[in-house]
Amino acid sequence: MKNKIAVLGAGSWGSILASVLVQNGHDVSLWTRHTDQANEINQKHTNQRYLKNYQYPSNLKATADLKQALTAAQIILFSVPTPAIRDVATQVAKILQEQNNQPLIAHASKGLEQNTHLRISQILEIAIPQSQCQAIVALSGPSHAEEVARQDPTLITAASTDLDAAKRIQDVFMNNYFRVYTNTDLIGVEIGAALKNVIALGVGALHGLGYGDNAKAALMTRGLAEISRLGVALGANPLTFTGLSGVGDLIVTCTSVHSRNWRAGDQIGRGQNPADVIANMGMVVEGVKTCQSAYELAQQENIEMPIVEATYDVLYNHANIDKVAADLMQREGKAEL
């Protein structure tokens, strides 16, 4: 069934998801804040800042007019950075009220809001009244936009407390190279999606420091333990973290040069100033702000998260990264589980 879908955010991930939806036969409006970017997508069918040398479908329509993008939308997919979610969602709510529309809301963003420590779906629930949307679905998993653009086999998860809503998102995205599973553990999927970026910063830093695979595997494994520990405390199913949005997303983000969180960590490990690395990355490094939120949330919930704490010390307390890495190894001996 053909759906009218608004994709909000024309970065690499949002634009490639819009492309997948168009290829699947849906009517898609891709919203961007930038008129010149919308013109490039409409006229040249490219988005060179985010995905070089990829040709978008000619029938993908981009717009810088949010109201136009939302007109008659049956599904709205948010794919903007976490700090922008609340602002964009508030604008969306006003427009939906004017249009008297009640779409299904989905998001493909990964992070925790600063200060509030809220997950993306929680922000959306606050900004968009229940009367204006059918349900909220999180779309997450190991998925680099560059590889989806090549139509490499990609598997992700659609999570919602409303299983029918998750199944609908599954249906609109599924094709021969993009496979979607459903999950009702929205908390676990969103926590895994957010915190894997923090661990990827740490793994990248180890690479920059010159450490090998033993150290990286150790940090990934113990990082997953920390993610699971916090997630379970917040109400998640521990099995979620063994799935696509847990260990799957952690692996791809911690081992690929496509990962800007890994690249940022690598540069910091090589001795560059964290503030300079973040400023020069060209795209949002979600793990940096998520690290602060995760650190504060762990303190609030009294959850032990030494890797998150170590990463926070480097990013926010200007701690010496060599000493931080050494201190992690010298912690008191403990049982693994």
UniProtKB/TrEMBL annotation:
EC number, UniProt record: 1.1.1.94
Pathway: Membrane lipid metabolism; glycerophospholipid metabolism
PROSITE patterns per record: NAD_G3PDH
Family matches, as Pfam families: NAD_Gly3P_dh_C, NAD_Gly3P_dh_N
Entry binding sites for sn-glycerol 3-phosphate: K110, G141, S143, K196, D249, S259, R260, N261
Binding sites annotated in the UniProt record for NADPH: S12, W13, R33, H34, Y50, K110, A145, R260, V284, E286
Residues covered by the Glycerol-3-phosphate dehydrogenase NAD-dependent C-terminal domain: 185-324
Residues the record marks as active site: K196 (proton acceptor)
MF (Gene Ontology): glycerol-3-phosphate dehydrogenase [NAD(P)+] activity
Keyword annotations from UniProtKB, A to Z: Cytoplasm, Lipid biosynthesis, Lipid metabolism, NAD, NADP, Nucleotide-binding, Oxidoreductase, Phospholipid biosynthesis, Phospholipid metabolism
Function recorded in the entry: Catalyzes the reduction of the glycolytic intermediate dihydroxyacetone phosphate (DHAP) to sn-glycerol 3-phosphate (G3P), the key precursor for phospholipid synthesis.
UniProt family annotation: Belongs to the NAD-dependent glycerol-3-phosphate dehydrogenase family.
HAMAP family in UniProt: NAD_Glyc3P_dehydrog
Entry protein name: Glycerol-3-phosphate dehydrogenase [NAD(P)+]
Source organism per UniProt: Bombilactobacillus thymidiniphilus
